Amino acid sequence: MMPGSSAPAEITAAAALLRAGELVAFPTETVYGLGADARNPLAVRRIFAAKGRPADHPLIVHLAPTVDPAQALSAWAIVDERARLLVRACWPGPLTVVLPRAEGVLDEVTGGLATVGLRMPSHPVAQALLTTFGDGVAAPSANRFGRVSPTTAAHVRAELGDELRVLDGGPCQVGVESTIVDLSGALPAILRPGAVTAEQVQALLGPLAPSSTTRAPGTLEGHYAPHTSLRLSTDPQAEAEALRARGLRVAILPAGDPADHARRLYAELRRLDGLQVDVLVAEPAADEGLGRAINDRLRRAARGAEG
Ligand code: AMP
Ligand code: MG
Fold it and tell me: Is the full-model pTM beyond 0.90?
């Protein structure tokens, strides 16, 4: 049994809300999403209003599981062999592909771009909702713009209030947002690191565009930010001692096994943010595989918290 409000009747009710143009928050394996019918421009605009997000930031369209994941792409995008290969290997899972958009895909979803981001999540509650709804659901993370992404249903309510329908699928198993691979150019480009690693993508597709030249539109340097000031240190104990010697109250977020580190990262940032300390000191992960995704989020959180 999944915890919380993911019984069949809850899924049916949530799908009906989506059909009526309303928003529904739902769990995925990465983070919780704030979903709207991706074919309904008014519904999609509600996402931007609820998050306080600028309207030119593109959203990811979430797709129901299919026997051949590559088949699901063609209603939304112009598909090539690289895309078929990648999604057959990685879907359902924490990977978003960016492809030239098919005719009829809304500007509200793509932020006016000629491309569209697509993902097929593996979380059973997300899959049940998408299958029952029967079409694509546009969904960014279910947090206020610029803040830490939610990895539990309680986080979503803390961010967006009690009025919103939230399906509860327990804590997210991956814990950081999907890897975004842009396949609209000559070389595949990782726009955002995630649990599907650059090493895995390269093994499937060959050479990648150099990472310094790539960045997802609408991602900001200061993002995923707690309210408390955050510093990164490879020796967090020593850094904390030095700060305490200056009279500051300090909490430490240690590294650990990368999968576990990623899974608890946002929940820990939220918890430590509530502790009434002056500074959070976070230890970065080894900069490889999933560690790259963790460090990307920590760096952005550190920058966002400075303001
Ligand atoms: P979020 O769901 O909050 O993680 O935000 C969606 C992410 O997907 C943002 O970083 C967007 O920049 C990225 N994204 C969605 N669609 C596209 C696209 N067509 N091209 C590039 N990035 C995209
Ligand atoms: Mg987000």
Answer: yes
